[in-house]
Amino acid sequence: MLWLLTTMCLVHGFGKTFCLFEPNKNPEVHMNVSQIIRHWEYPSEEYEVVTDDGYILPINRIPHGKNNANSSAPKMVVFCLHGLFSTAGVWVFNPPNNSLAFILADAGYDVWLGNSRGSTWAKKHVTLNPDSKEFWAFSFDQMITYDLPATINFILEKTGQKQIYYIGHSQGTLIGLGAFATNQELAEKIKLSILIAPIYTVKYVKGSGRLPAYFSPKTFKLLFGEKEFLPTVAFNKVSEHVCDITLVDAGCAALLGSLTGYAKDQLNMSRVDVYIAHSLAGTSVQILIHYGQAIRSGVFKAYDWGSQSLNMQHYNQTTPPVYNVEDMKVPTALFTGLKDFLSNPEDVANLVPKIPNLIYHKILSKFSHLDFIAGLNARKEVSEEILTILRIHGGDLQL
């Protein structure tokens, strides 16, 4: 229990008090995604999508790069979806020469960035108040069922295309796997899926990411409530009594490393504050309970409501339905790392043989979870490889 309390203190103390408010830090810390895009002098558009269950999700768009604005040729669409606790800012939180969204835009793609419900800028609903428990009564099941289809259909309607490319990181991969396995109509709209640090089963998660598995749903709700789980403030009550921390940049890096894994040769220490700001955003308590269930069971399945009768009410069966990734026929490329705490190599080994149409798998021995999108070598090892994959396997644009 002591290590759990220590982690709580780190998240509270470093996350807000020091990492985000130390003077002379990067200006992007206090910017939203559109502001970051404009900060680097790229064109920025923002739209809102309403899901079938009433959540209002912002989508950010970079329609072209700096040097291809006048091109009249139709641009292939790439949609990127972030992971748990993150925002669309993860795709632009490095300078343009090492941020995947900017690299894609400069290569001639029409880049769209999604925001999952409950993240920093996705706290709106047609009728529900974000201060209510009802607003936060969601897990990744709802993102699979409602968020991704609504977002992709909006993009297709806006661009007039029949298919897009999908890039997911972390939970963004889990949402894609679940949606494309269970919604064949949606899957047909995906020309190619690129999954970075993929999440499928999470039985072997290491570090502080295992925290939800140590608590029953009831205990977790008693500790953290039934609304938002916000890493940088969720542990206030505990930290008031047990924390006495010296706040340093190395501590902020340790905070990220405790959750994601740590490869010191890849981390740009000068931008840790930006990584914290856009990689430790909010989500629901329910989704953390769901991940706790997944860690304990080792199975990718829907939320367990705690009794056969409740599961019957929600699913018309006594146990939560399993997401069968074997049903996901979309051509898929994987990028995985051996130092990744969350997309653990043992869980990845369980996923790989289940993907029917795996066209590419790159294993990076020195990469942890965030290194694929934030690492110093991310451009060379990941972004340029993605451009090659899109050129080779993308084929002709379908309009």
In terms of topology, how is this protein built?
Elements: H1 2-18, H2 33-39, E1 45-50, E2 55-62, E3 77-81, H3 100-106, E4 110-114, E5 124-125, H4 140-159, E6 164-169, H5 171-182, H6 184-187, E7 190-196, H7 217-224, E8 228-229, H8 236-242, H9 249-260, H10 272-279, E9 283-284, H11 285-297, H12 308-315, E10 332-337, H13 345-351, E11 358-364, H14 371-374, H15 378-394
Describe this structure in words.
This protein is of the alpha/beta class and 399 residues long. It is 38% helix and 14% strand. The protein has helices at residues 2-18, 33-39, 100-106, 140-159, 171-182, 184-187, 217-224, 236-242, 249-260, 272-279, 285-297, 308-315, 345-351, 371-374, 378-394; strands spanning 45-50, 55-62, 77-81, 110-114, 124-125, 164-169, 190-196, 228-229, 283-284, 332-337, 358-364. The longest helix is centred in the middle third of the chain and has 20 residues, at 140-159. The radius of gyration is 20 Å and the shape is globular. The chain starts with a helix and ends in a 5-residue tail after the last helix. Residues 1-24 and 232-248 have low confidence and may be disordered.
